[in-house]
Design brief:
It catalyses: O-acetyl-L-serine + hydrogen sulfide = L-cysteine + acetate. Keywords: Amino-acid biosynthesis, Cysteine biosynthesis, Pyridoxal phosphate, Transferase. Pfam families: PALP. The protein folds into 2 domains: 165 residues, Rossmann fold; 97 residues, Rossmann fold (3-Layer(aba) Sandwich). The mean pLDDT is 93. It is globular, with a radius of gyration of 18 Å. Helix 5 packs across helix 6. The chain contains 8 helices and 10 strands. The protein is of the alpha/beta class. Helix content is 36%, strand content 17%.
């Protein structure tokens, strides 16, 4: 009998859910984190990256060797570069020039072409340039900010996994908000199972610059975002996110990025307000793509 060996694509999703052991202190709550850095390209964005390409193929919008274009702050770009390599597409990624060198190197390693905009132009400028290039016929913009395949990946994957892994006991779900795909799709699924599950979304406090999460100007708010799917929005400061990120590595052995630290900082705040709860936070990526920024050496 022939062995049906898996492909790299089949390893996206089904990530572990683990309990924090020390950061929570004495509590009646379970504070759990979902390790999305275990995906092949290292982040939660592997899920929507593959889903967006697969859906575009299913709809006949693209075929192998076509050019795909996307504005990204990092993780989606790495994931799309991997997915494009798997599927046989040319990938052009546009990102602000202040993103970490590790992220840029990872995208290039997968064969993507990188275009930079200034830090001042930011993600808004990157999105504008992507749309301009599409109008000029230079490729198809997948547009993670408006593409329904983004939350669909989490409705079909992340949400059901968390429900099964907690045996339906989840009471709170916490996720940083960037494109908002993770929180939209997961919220939809969890609320269908139990409307009482509380959905908490994180945005950076004024003045904070946390990779992957944003306070979007109204004109650039992702169109996939449905505010009614989020029960509470919490602001997280730069210091809160970075301190929690370093403590996760040093006290829990969980090596992750700044936005993941923010999600855990929020989870710990919620844990101080409730009892006998099952709180799940998303660890959206790994810490190795932030080493050059110096955040792990700060005190």
């Amino acid at each position: 009998m022939a062995v049906n060996y898996p492909t790299i694509e089949s390893l996206v999703g089904n990530t572990p859910l683990v309990r924090l052991q020390r950061l929570t202190g004495n509590t009646t709550n379970h504070v759990l984190v979902k390790l999305e850095g275990n995906n092949p390209a290292g982040s939660v964005k592997d899920r929507p990256a593959l889903m967006m390409i697969n859906e575009a193929e299913r709809l006949g919008a693209i075929k192998p060797s076509d050019t795909l274009i996307e504005a990204t702050s990092g993780n989606t770009g790495i994931a799309l570069a991997m997915a494009a390599a798997i599927k046989g597409y040319r990938m052009v990624l546009i990102m602000p020039d202040n993103m970490s060198e590790e992220r840029r190197s990872a995208m290039s390693a997968y064969g993507a072409e990188l275009i930079s905009v200034s830090q001042e132009q930011g993600m808004e400028g990157a999105r504008d340039l992507a749309e301009q290039m599409e109008r000029e016929g230079k490729g198809l913009v997948l547009n993670q900010f408006a593409n329904k395949a983004n939350p669909l990946a989490h409705y079909l994957g992340t949400g059901p996994e968390i429900w099964e892994q907690t045996q339906g006991e989840i009471t709170h779900f916490i996720s940083s908000m960037g494109t908002t795909g993770t929180i939209m799709g997961t919220s939809r699924y969890l609320k269908e199972q139990n409307p009482a599950v509380q959905i908490i979304g994180l945005q950076p406090a004024e003045g904070a610059s946390i990779p992957g999460i944003r306070r979007w100007p109204k004109a650039y708010l992702p169109t996939i975002f449905e505010p009614e799917r989020v029960d509470q929005v919490m602001d997280i400061t730069q210091q809160e996110a970075e301190v929690a990120m370093r403590r996760l590595a040093q006290e829990e052995g969980i090596f992750c990025g700044v936005s993941s630290g923010g999600a855990v900082a929020a989870a710990l705040k919620i844990a101080q307000q409730v009892e006998n709860a099952t709180i799940v936070a998303i660890i959206c990526d790994r810490g190795d793509r932030y080493l050059s920024t110096g955040v792990f050496s700060s005190k």
